[in-house]
Amino acid sequence: MAMEAADMIVVAIYFILVLGIGFLAMWKANRNTVSGYFLAGRSMNWAAVGASLFVSNIGSEHFIGLAGSGAVSGLSVAAWELNAVLLLQFLGWVFIPVYIQCGVYTMPEYLSKRYGGNRLKVYFAALSLVLYIFTKLSVDLYSGALFIKESLGWNLYLSILLLIAMTALLTISGGLVAVIYTDTVQAFLMIAGALCLTGISLFKVGGFEGPCFSFMHS
What we know:
single chain; mainly alpha; 9 helices; 83% helix; 0% strand; globular
């Protein structure tokens, strides 16, 4: 279904808003120190950090891929996300204080300081990068580009390059400050969009009883 003029305006406003906030963060950010670049100068409040953490874990793969898996397999696919709630609490209350006390900024840096040498640090950094590219980043890029392709009619690979270019520009130039600012805005948009999508979906299938009936007879 082709997008109408109002839909195009909303998409354009979204991109302009995200880019504008990202460039504003780049202008205000202190990127001259390691702490300023990787830790946003330790100046962010808990709400912005929480919103950024939420958006970093929830993305287009959930709206497109996980929703489709749930429609096919049921609520069992939600077990991973439900476990993440407990693990994130464990991370925040047990591990983060250790990292802060050690004065490290990354996990490879902590491993190097804890066990000595650079081989473990390089190995863990390379392994994390490879796994993230093939299990997380590739899925995010494909599902995001798929949405752009279906809504705007753009080429799939062109959409992927656009997403990579925007992300690289804001992240590399602005550091963690730009990431947190843009993530905070997107957190509100994603929650609002998810609530609207949930309401519309339940209305289309006949309320809460609709999915249960349809799944049992599919």
